[in-house]
TrEMBL record:
Gene Ontology cellular component annotations, sorted alphabetically: cytosol
NCBIfam families xref list: cit_synth_II, PRK14033.1
Known pathway: Carbohydrate metabolism; tricarboxylic acid cycle
Gene Ontology biological process terms in this record: carbohydrate metabolic process; tricarboxylic acid cycle
Catalytically driven reaction(s): oxaloacetate + acetyl-CoA + H2O = citrate + CoA + H(+)
Protein name: Citrate synthase
InterPro entries assigned: 2-MeCitrate/Citrate_synth_II, Citrate_synth-like_lrg_a-sub, Citrate_synth-like_sm_a-sub, Citrate_synthase, Citrate_synthase_AS, Citrate_synthase_bac-typ, Citrate_synthase_sf
């Protein structure tokens, strides 16, 4: 009998069809429902992109008005969810908070056991609307150092990105910061059958509920090989040392030396390389342009020096290009987000892509149940 071929990590295995997104091999560009993500980031709000992912088309003005009204109505933090978050220690990772909050929201949802397309669309929109309040409140309570703190109430006169920043920092962000944040949300929204999306599709294939699939996806995204790289990028910057008084050139030289030493020690440096993109992550130029604007806005050229030094040293030594997490990490840092909140920001964005996939899974469902090749002891018996 021929030995079975094992595809570790399902590498190269095509398991199903999807109409949600693809990487165009001719242009190396990521497409959402056929639209290049760079165009969406340049011309659309995150609300429009969420609508596109769920419905297959960009909204008309009337459809967008109805959609945004529904999203804004779901923004306040559920008092019961707040109580559960308050019961969690601030030493827990914020991804644990996101996972728990999603589970509680599912258990409390009026359509919890309704698996119809309409019900799942409503649950997806409710998660999309409510998760920013979870992430924002969690950062605020961690800064309160044990003192009582209340959520910043959402504003229905602000778009999704502007309101997210408002609830986190308690002040209205300037247009440049809102735009950069909006770009990041769009770029993180979807990426085909990545680990967390596939984990959630497996859960959905059992005919479990949408919130359970999202909870499982959050668990998968917590892993540093998938969603934690944007945090790891800032840990690298911190290890090198962020010196605001330093020039771009000085910072670049120190970063390059650090990278050369790290590679000589065979240290894994996060934020570089991608399993899908072989010639560079197509999302990076758009996110890097947003980072450049934030560096100029906040007057922090030393961060650009660290960025450039690490990037050039990695390229010279290995020919490996940055992925989306590399420019996203310092962008979120400049905005004022704590490093351990970066992956929860990823969650808030990816809820849109996840739930688009989970509803697609149900449309033509087949239980996902792969086989394994046994390599344990031969049959034996208890004496």
């Amino acid at each position: 009998m021929a030995e079975e071929e094992i595809k570790k990590g399902l590498d190269g295995v095509v398991v199903d069809y999807t109409a949600v997104s693809k990487v165009n091999p001719d242009t190396n560009s990521l497409l959402y429902r056929g639209y290049p993500v760079q165009e969406l980031a340049a011309k659309c709000s995150f609300e429009e992109v969420a609508y596109l992912l769920w419905n297959g088309e960009l909204p008309s003005s009337g459809e967008l008005a109805d959609f945004t009204a529904r999203e804004r109505a779901g923004r306040p933090l559920d008092p019961v969810v707040k109580q559960v978050i308050d019961a969690l220690p601030t030493t827990s990772h914020p991804m644990d908070v996101c996972r728990t909050a999603a589970s509680v929201m599912g258990a409390r949802h009026s359509l919890a056991e309704d698996s119809s397309r309409e019900a799942n669309m409503a649950k997806a929109l409710d998660l999309f609307a409510a998760m920013p309040a979870v992430v924002a409140y969690d950062q605020r309570r961690r800064h309160a150092a044990g003192r009582p703190v209340e959520p910043v109430e959402p504003r229905d006169d602000l778009g999704y990105s502007a309101n997210f920043l408002w609830m986190t920092f308690g002040e209205e962000a300037v247009a440049e910061v809102v735009e950069a944040f909006n770009v990041s949300m769009i770029l993180y929204a979807e990426h085909s059958f990545n680990a967390s999306t596939f984990a959630g599709r497996v859960i959905m294939s059992t005919l479990s509920d949408l919130h359970s699939a999202v909870t499982g996806a959050i668990g998968a995204l917590k892993g540093p090989l998938h969603g934690g790289a944007n945090e790891a990028v800032m840990h690298t910057f911190d290890e090198i040392g962020i010196r605001p008084e330093e020039s771009l050139e000085e910072a670049a030289d120190r970063a390059k030396t650090w990278m050369e030493n790290a590679l000589a020690q065979k240290k894994k440096v996060m934020g570089f390389g991608h399993r899908v993109y072989k010639h560079g992550d197509s999302r990076v130029p758009t996110m890097k342009a947003a980072l450049d604007k934030m560096i100029a806005h906040y007057g922090r050229p030393e961060l650009l020096g660290l960025y450039n030094g690490l990037e050039s040293a990695m390229d010279e030594a290995k020919g490996i290009k940055p992925n989306l997490d590399y420019p996203a990490g310092p962008t979120y840092h400049l905005m004022g987000f704590d490093t351990n909140m970066f992956t929860p920001l990823f969650v808030a964005s990816r809820i849109t892509g996840w739930t688009a996939h989970f509803m697609e899974q149900l449309n033509a469902n087949s239980l996902i149940r792969p086989l394994s090749a046994y390599n344990g002891p031969d049959e034996r018996h208890v004496p």
